[in-house]
Amino acid sequence: MSERGTEIDRERRRLLGAAAGAGVALVAPAVVVRALETTPRDAPVDGRVRWGLAIDTAKCAAGCTACVDACARENGLDLQHPPEGAEPADWATQRAVWVRKVRLRDDQTGRETNLPLMCQHCEHPPCVDVCPTGASFKRADGIVMVDRHTCIGCRYCMMACPYKARSFIHEALSDQLSHVPRGKGCVESCNLCVHRRDFGLPSTACAEACAETGHGAILFGDLADPDSAISRFLASEPTRQIREDLALNTGVRYAGV
Amino acid sequence: MKRIVYREWRLAPARYWGILGVLAVMVGAGLLAFAYMEHEGHWVTGMNNSVVWGTPHVFAVFLIIASSGALNIASIGSVFRKPIYKPLGRLSGLLALALLAGGLMVLVLDLGRPERLVVALTNYNFKSIFAWNIFLYTGFMAIVITYLWSMADRKGDPFIRPVGVFALLWRLALTTGTGSIFGFLVARQAYDAAILGPMFVAMSFAYGLAVFVLVLMFGFAEDRRPIGARMLRRLKNLLAVFVLAVLYFTLVYHLTSAYGAKDQGLEGWLLFDGGVYTTLFWVGWILLGSLVPLGILYHPVRGAEAPWVAAACVLVILGGLAALAVVIIASQAYPLQLFPGKTILESGFLDGVGGQPAPYHPTLPELLLGFGGVGLALLITAVGVRVLQFLPESLADEVLPIDEETIEQPVAKAA
Amino acid sequence: MALLTYSYAALFYVAALVLVSGLVVKIVRYARTPAPLKIPTTPAPTSRSGVALRMTREVVLFESLFRGNKWTWIFGWIFHFGLFLVTLRHLRYFIEPVWAPIALVQPFGIYGGIAMVIGLLGLWARRFLVDRVRYISSTSDHLMLALLVLIGTSGLLMKFVFHTDVVAIKRFFLGLYALDPQPLPADPLLLLHLLLVALLMIVFPYSKLLHAPGLFFSPTRNQVDDPRERRHLAPWARALEQQAPAASSDPRG
Amino acid sequence: MAKATFDVPELTPYTEVPAVTPGAMAHSAPFVSKAEFQGPLGFPGELVEDWQTRAIDKMGELLGKYRSLRVYLDSCVKCGACTDKCHYFLGTQDPKNMPVGRQDLMRKVYRRYFTLGGRLFPKLVGAEDFTKEVLDDWYSYFHQCSQCRRCSVFCPYGIDTAEISMAAREIMDSIGVGQKYCNEIIGKVYKIGNNLGLPGPALVDTLEGLEEDVFDETGVKVRYPIDEEGAEILLVTPSADFFAEPHVDGLIGYGKVFHAAGVSWTLSSHASEAANFGMFIGSYDNMRRVAQRIREAAIALKVKRIVFGECGHAWRVAYSFLNTLAGPWDFLDPRYPVPQHICEFTHDLIEQGRLTFDKSENDDKVITFHDSCNVARASRMGEVPGGQFEIPRAIIRATCNHFYDMDEDTIRDRTFCCGGGGGLLTDDLIELRVKGAKPRLDALNNVMQEKGVTHMAAICAICKSQFTKVLPYYGMEMDQIVSLHQLVSNAIVLEGGEDDDEEDAPAAA
Amino acid sequence: VLTAMPASARSTVVPGSEAAGLGACVEPTELMRRQHMEFIKHQRDRTVHGGIRTSKHSLAGCVECHIGHDAQGQAVPIDRADQFCGACHAYVAVDLNCFDCHAAVPRGPMAGSLAEAARRAVDEAQHGQGAVQP
Ligand code: HEM
Ligand code: HEM
Ligand code: SF4
Ligand code: SF4
Ligand code: SF4
Ligand code: SF4
Ligand code: SF4
Ligand code: SF4
């Protein structure tokens, strides 16, 4: 018995090496190293945490799209290609976008603001309320996402979302990443890099990328923990929710809009 | 009272199969369009991440609310005790079923994952109006079938009225529910209005009746059965009243919108510079869909002539499609107002840079799918009247029951 | 294991033999028996293609039954259509490679299975609830329904609750073709399912299940309505004519 | 007038399906045929010694001769669709009058002797030995089937109980258990030429009387010829048409139509009967023998066409079987179908505009039409399927102003039998006939109440006789039943010509 | 003993996959043959809704362990008709649409982590509860 166990162990190590090698070929080495240090979650998520983002628009730079690119890379959105025969203009309206960069001008003051806009992880998410099958759901830890095994692709959640945070997959995909399954006919949106959550990684791809560019405009953390960096930031800076009038108590807050 | 005699639709086989053939081609084209959309993915449609519901939904919603409206005739006959409408009850029920089936077909075949229909039927989120609608639709089918049974079977006689009342209530719930699919979308300015519910009810009455009258006239003309002047007058008066009601709710809706400060942008856009949507609204919905038919129906001479009444019905139907296109598509094309007091200069995701509406160009597969639904509805009707006794033998004046024609307030009674 | 495999293999060889030979004998006998007179139930089609259409409507839609009794029609049709879908789905156990159309429709066989059982229960309920049908039902009618319900429910249980090794089953049946039985999984439900199926195959040629081939031979349905245009004469009736010629069958003679 | 010894059912607005009452009609059986009536048909005079084996043998023989029997005895799934379709069940409540109940009388014997299941497990599959009790049941209930085929319309496999009851009667005949009414009549046909036993001279007399009556009434010399060699058309009509009311009014009508058409025609004393009771007793031989008379008459009279008068089962035998039984008809005029129905003939003339009618002559009547079962479900008129429904109605519409159909479920191929067909039109079965007429009369009563219908037209001698007899039991008048050609006769406007007074009107050939 | 037949004659495990070198699947093979769809379906709900990633029934885990390789050592999509999942399902005409969305070859930075979780769970099953396989 035990003999066999060790045999499996040895075998596994060999294969892990190979897997890591394959990983290297595909992505930056730093990522691979981190991937090997994960601690997968083994108990169901609960309500003791509420994940959220705080965005300091003052720090968000014009012309930068690092967070958008990082999100695309992390979630395999950049592996999506226009189907053959699609008009580029149409394709631009149909491809999936989980986070976008928006530049605004105040009509009164003329001041310009930059910000990334993604799913706001509402506490009372309209997208969840309307979903007929319950595929659109809010995880106990506050992440709003789509269970794509029960999503029928009706797009009602897209009608309901005040932030246009969701995308419908208009074409067949291939080359998905193992940790982000996604495909034709379902709706998806920013899920606060849920696989990173479950494997115990500290941050989201966008926040990490923004930090790497040196802007540090995105702060990720636990809103339920008063001592977390994000809670302290929210306590110290005046922030607001977009479309506060709807009283959705969003998990993504903006400073300086 | 004289018994109403119902007869199967007895056309010459060549003619009948010809009609079925045309309808089958319509349905077939719809199915092909579906297969194409399903195989390629939705990128072959004009729908996109901003306008997520397009032409198929215009057809689907039209058919569904028309379905509810088509049953109105049966309700007036048995619930509101207007014996003159009694002979039409069965056709009214059949048409309600058929239109609903057509609408649901379009809706289901447009899903991103239609093969998961079972998922939709087994997983419910009871907070969702949409999920409720699934119940409302399947329930409606069951109730209408019971209703039809009660009208057709002699044992059903005592149940006609209770079932009819139940069907009426259910029907109002169904239309309100369909309207609420939009009405509860707080996110979108155009929808965030309680009046959408009653407006949909009025629309359903008008469109359902228009479809009903057309089908009735066609079915009767083909089989050379008579429709008396009295019946025609009743039907066209009823239609006129319903069209007026739609017009009234349209007015109230836009007045309240224009009054509420936050929606003024939307109103201005839609009514004046929404491009094709403005045209759809004024020319399609208001002029051709409401005013011209009203003119015909209230015309002292034309209003009594069957071809003109049929023309008015066609216009009401076309106007209805235009109205729903405005309600469904224009409202999505108008950008979400995320940052009041600010102008969007640049966005990675079509957020209405400089107030631009989102683009939407319907494509052929979408249209074919929509027509496929219409085809299915008519196909079911055509088969139904052929194999079962749905159509009364005659609607000539002398066979119709006497009715208190002088007091004509169908709306008050129907609504 | 081996014993089980071999006994089931034997069972299915026997059942298949009985089914095929029994049906062939019956059908040949139907086909050989003449129909001496034109007795289509009119209005009847006046051409062969018209008859083909009439038969198709009878087989696919149960047209006469529809006119006869709506309840029986609904349940009967649900049952048969379900059975048809189930049959299509089951083909995947018996052909390799599975034809594309079968692969396409096979998932619907699951709903077919559910529909089939519902239909059967409806038909069965009728045998208790309607006094006329109760009167005409014999024990065998009930047993036949019971048999099919049992087959259906054991199948559904396998599909939804106690899965079985479908790959092994297919290997078993493909093995039977090659006279080389492969091991059959010893799942009780599967064994029950297969036992009952074998029973069904054996009784088929000796029971009312003959209605399936019978319909195609029913003279009231399959005859062309053209007696005035075409003289219709059975061999034995022709013989009658020859042995006793009518007073003067040739007008000129 | 009618004093019934049984309970006449009460008419209901719709025919309700009754609860089954086993044995309700077990007492009903027609008189058994005597040896003198059996002999001429080639049947044993009384129940033979080894009847059981002979019956089983006969059954085996028939199974080999009739595919219908073979398939029908195997195929029934007891679906029950036919159970509420037979007028005799609806009228008598006896479950053995449900078509499948009736078939089962034979099926249980078939199963016992001809199937594996029945030999091994008779109880399980409902198989039974052919005992005397079973034979009695056979005699009783196979003479409660008018062979109307209504059951076969609704049976998913088209199982036709008429075929079964014909086979059963043939088996019974073959062991010496015949029915007096049918067998006696067939004997009369052989001996005298028609069912009623009217000899030739009597017919000539009657027809002369008719000519006079018509002349008196219309002033036009319409001829009613018999045995005229060289006439264009041979008319074969049920013998009741020669004298019985309302049949004879139909015959008068035929004559007027022929007259208006200007064709020569004749009756035949050799074939003075359209009816063919050979069908009722399921005997191919007897049916063939009866049919051959028509061939003989046609040849003898050198006619070019054959036209049949109003009779339901006669038309079935004529339309569906005549070619088989007495064909080929290659010596007749190939431009016309052989045979033709008088309605087809009249309808053709109407279509061509060659008849003139004064519809107001029928204004005293509001008409409905009874589709006779054998015409409706076992034959056709005209070119297209369903012509047998449209052509008579077209004739009525052309001759009457007031016409209403009965309930849709009781007309056309769903028509209810009059209750007297299939060789049951005998007084010893009056209870059955009255009860079996209920569904038809329910529907008639309905249109009488709602549309004010006064008369029902029919195109069958049996229907007419049956209704004349049973209408009074239900409080209706016997003359409410009329011949279709009676309506034609009333409305037709005949050319009063100069030649009317001449003896020999030249027949336009 | 149920498996009297040698595994090779019946197994569809692809040569060259990690599984080919191992003695047992995450559950006893007889059970996997019958119940694998239930296992992964349950796992699916637990992962998507509960965020649990440690169970042995992970789909990504199946893929990693059962993936085959071509001559160049490149992973071959597992749903291909000659590969592990694909071969079996083609045989019984079951259309698997899982790989519309799921990667049919291990791909991406976290690939190793996902399989790792499954392996760890198997280990636990084998060491913790004793051997399931002879
Ligand atoms: C050509 C194919 C077939 C046709 C057209 C056909 C048609 C029918 C019809 C019209 C009925 C009567 C209505 C009803 O009770 O459902 C019936 C009954 C039945 N059929 Fe079929 N059938 C076919 C094949 C089969 C087969 C293959 C089976 C069995 C495996 C089957 C089993 C049954 C049974 C058991 C009943 C009796 C239901 C009862 O007891 O009420 N049929 N069939
Ligand atoms: C030798 C012939 C047959 C074999 C080998 C067989 C085998 C099977 C198997 C393995 C299943 C389970 C399918 C799964 O788990 O996905 C099944 C299901 C089923 N079987 Fe059969 N069966 C046979 C004949 C029949 C017959 C003749 C009937 C009906 C009269 C029938 C009715 C069903 C039904 C209703 C189901 C459930 C639905 C489904 O999975 O298709 N089977 N059968
Ligand atoms: S990466 Fe940081 S700075 Fe750059 S766009 Fe994103 S939020 Fe702004
Ligand atoms: S932002 Fe939109 S998608 Fe995200 S939770 Fe809120 S409503 Fe749902
Ligand atoms: S598209 Fe999917 S997630 Fe969105 S509402 Fe429909 S089913 Fe729910
Ligand atoms: S949290 Fe993750 S999924 Fe969401 S926007 Fe940032 S990178 Fe994308
Ligand atoms: S043929 Fe007519 S009388 Fe005879 S059983 Fe059938 S329905 Fe009854
Ligand atoms: S309808 Fe036909 S199959 Fe059904 S019980 Fe009657 S005879 Fe039998």
Briefly characterize the structure.
Chain D: Keywords: 4Fe-4S, Electron transport, Iron, Iron-sulfur, Metal-binding, Transport. The complex is a heteropentamer of chains A (257), B (415), C (253), D (509) and E (134). With 257 residues, chain A is of the alpha+beta class.
Shape of chain E: globular
Largest sheet of chain E: 2 strands, antiparallel
Strand content of chain C: under 5%
| Radius of gyration of chain C (Å) | 23 Å
Tally of individual helices of chain C: 13
How many structural domains are formed by the residues of chain C?
1
In percent, how much strand structure appears in the residues of chain E? under 5%
Write a structural description:
The complex is a heteropentamer of chains A (257), B (415), C (253), D (509) and E (134). Chain A has helices spanning 2-26, 29-35, 66-75, 88-94, 126-130, 156-160, 194-198, 205-213, 229-236; strands spanning 51-56, 99-106, 112-118, 136-138, 144-146, 167-168, 187-188, 218-222, 239-240, 252-255. Chain A has nine helices and ten strands. Chain A is 32% helix and 16% strand. Chain A folds into two domains: 1-36; 51-255, 2-Layer Sandwich (Alpha-Beta Plaits). Chain A is globular, with a radius of gyration of 20 Å. The longest helix of chain A has 25 residues, at 2-26. Chain D folds into two domains: 35-185, Orthogonal Bundle (Fumarate Reductase Iron-sulfur Protein, Chain B, domain 2); 192-404 and 453-491, no CATH class. Chain D starts with 34 loop residues before the first helix and ends in an 18-residue tail after the last helix. Mean pLDDT of chain D is 92; it is low at 500-509. With 134 residues, chain E is an all-alpha fold. Chain E contains six helices and two strands; from the N terminus they run H-H-H-E-E-H-H-H. A two-stranded antiparallel sheet of chain E has the order 1-2. The chains are: A alpha+beta (257), B mainly alpha (415), C mainly alpha (253), D mainly alpha (509), E mainly alpha (134). Chains in contact: A-B, A-E, B-D, C-D, C-E. Chains C and D meet through helix 1, helix 3, helix 7, helix 8 and helix 11 of C and helix 2, helix 3, helix 5, helix 7 and helix 9 of D. Strand 2 (99-106) of chain A pairs antiparallel with strand 2 of chain B, so a sheet runs across the interface. The complex binds protoporphyrin IX containing FE (HEM) (2 copies) and iron/sulfur cluster (6 copies). Residues 85-86, 88, 99, 102, 145-151, 161-162, 417 of chain D line the site of one iron/sulfur cluster. Chain C: It is found in: Cell membrane. Chain C: InterPro entries: Heme-iron_electron_transfer, NarG-like_domain, NarG-like_sf. Chain C: Residues 77-212 form the NarG-like domain.
Indicate the topology:
The complex is a heteropentamer of chains A (257), B (415), C (253), D (509) and E (134).
Chain C: H1 2-32, H2 48-61, H3 63-68, H4 70-90, H5 100-105, H6 108-129, H7 131-136, H8 139-160, H9 166-177, H10 188-203, H11 211-217, H12 219-222, H13 235-243
Chain D: H1 35-38, H2 51-65, H3 67-75, H4 87-92, H5 99-114, H6 116-120, H7 122-125, H8 132-141, H9 150-154, H10 161-174, H11 180-191, H12 200-218, E1 233-236, H13 247-261, E2 265-266, H14 284-301, E3 305-308, H15 312-326, E4 340-341, H16 342-351, E5 367-370, H17 373-378, H18 387-399, H19 430-436, H20 438-451, E6 455-458, H21 461-470, E7 481-483, H22 484-491
Parallel strand pairs in D: 1-2, 1-3, 3-4, 5-6, 6-7
Chain E: H1 7-10, H2 29-50, H3 59-66, E1 68-69, E2 75-76, H4 84-91, H5 98-101, H6 111-128
Antiparallel strand pairs in E: 1-2
Helix pairs in contact in E: 3-6
